[in-house]
Amino acid sequence: MPRSTNALIIDGYVDEPACLGVSPYVSPYIREVAGVLIGHGYAPRYVTIDQVRADPALATSPGRGDLVVMIAGLTVPGAYIGGRPATLTEIQQIGILLRQPTTAIGGPIAFGYAPGGGKKAIRQAIAGFDVTLSGSPAVALDSWLLGGEPAGAGDYSLTDPWAAAGAGIIGGHPAFPYVICELETATGCSRATVGGCSFCTEPFYGLPRYRSIEGIAEEVAALYAAGARHFRLGRQPDLLAYKSGGGEFPVPRPEALAELFSAVRENAPDLKTLHIDNINPGTIARHEDAARAALEVIVAGHTPGDTASFGMETADPAVVAANNLKAMPDDVFRAIEVVNEVGGKRTRGIPELLPGLNFIVGLAGETPATFDANEAFLRRVLDAGLLVRRVNIRQVMPFEGTKAYTENTLGKHDARFRSFKEWTRKEFDEPMLRRVFPVGTVLSEVVVEVPGKPSFGRQMGSYPILVGIPLELPARAVIDTVVVDWGMRSVTALPSPVEVNTLPAAALRWIPGVGKKRAATIAARRPFGSVEEFREVAGETGIEGVMRF
């Protein structure tokens, strides 16, 4: 009996220090694996773990073919809106369910698994799967299909053609065309020779290997032809180091970044989103002039509303030293200032590029005073009038092979960790959101991800703000909105333009200054013929410029 030419790719979602592949993001691993399968004569079909949860038959139906490849694994778990990564239990259940076809599992799951931050990741065989793909999933899969070992390091001479060949797989994503294609520019860590940060898995990939602009351009062209319009230069530990020389903190090369952004735009001329991810604050602090010039190139080439993710980890110098971290608190503060100076200007009301801060709890050397230092640092940022897009706080998930696996303070300061997180949400996040997204800020093309009343959605991009809309809207609805209020990690917004005469009465109260009682009066006095008539009842609101009568 001839083997089936069908194959199935299950996206269990990945999240690493330098790669995000949780819906609506599609990781490079998925597209490269699709390219390998196509090259071996298969017709791959693509489903996400969310789809499999809703309908297990998607993974077990005869149409899946003789080969199933699953990609999964988290090394920096977070909070997710668009999708929920596969748990180890689910991965094993899927492997056992599949039984008959040949099955392979790959991705960061090969490094180990933990149910969440604050737990050690345990490396183990994944029950139910015939083989674990070690190293680069695509290279390992190709080797295995050729009869070799299921292992192999990343090699852009191999993966670049596969990435382009597999670009069309994105059309199978349930959120398509509202997917963000994570573009790889490099793997590895420039600080690998000195061990890297104590907790990080990126040094497992060795010293940096930079992908060619030609390879990136060809993949972007293929993705664009497949319908992609949203991109992020996200699969790298420090975009400022792209194509730079050696050393622990390479000097940025603005001309290389200019060529990169130009190539992406030339091959995706009508793109809607072009954002970035990781920026090393230590690079900015050590090479301020070159870094400033590189950031200016990014702002000239990207789309507004972008976030430069800073792996700060802690504001305690003792913890920085004990864990070989990238930058001291004063270095990070200066990096925040530089990004604000270059990227703080607003385009259509939205800041061009802002820093995002990552804190990690449970590192070696941490004491109760560490949390005092963290709070003092954030207070300093607020007092200086600076803008920060978001603050992520997570507990370390140590992996075997990292220093943090044996040297950490897990579980020692749980109460102080919780109080620090609560303090940040109340005392820092909400005031900062008011500063970054003032009343009247228009957030265009918000994609509804959680339907209901209220509905929740986000713009496409890097760390987009969660938008609560006090209306019942269907999933995948796309609307323009205007900010009217703030929570600790989200904003409340109304559809823009604000149709005062038809907006449901329950939503009228969210117009700034209106409230429940005045909303009832407004509803009773409708329709209004002009802003002036509306002001007589509602007073000044700050969003008159986006009202329609």
From TrEMBL:
It holds the Pfam family Radical_SAM. PROSITE patterns: RADICAL_SAM. Residues 175-438 form the Radical SAM core domain. SUPFAM superfamilies: PsbU/PolX domain-like, Radical SAM enzymes. SMART domains: Elp3. CDD domains: Radical_SAM. This is Radical SAM protein. It comes from Methanoculleus methanifontis.
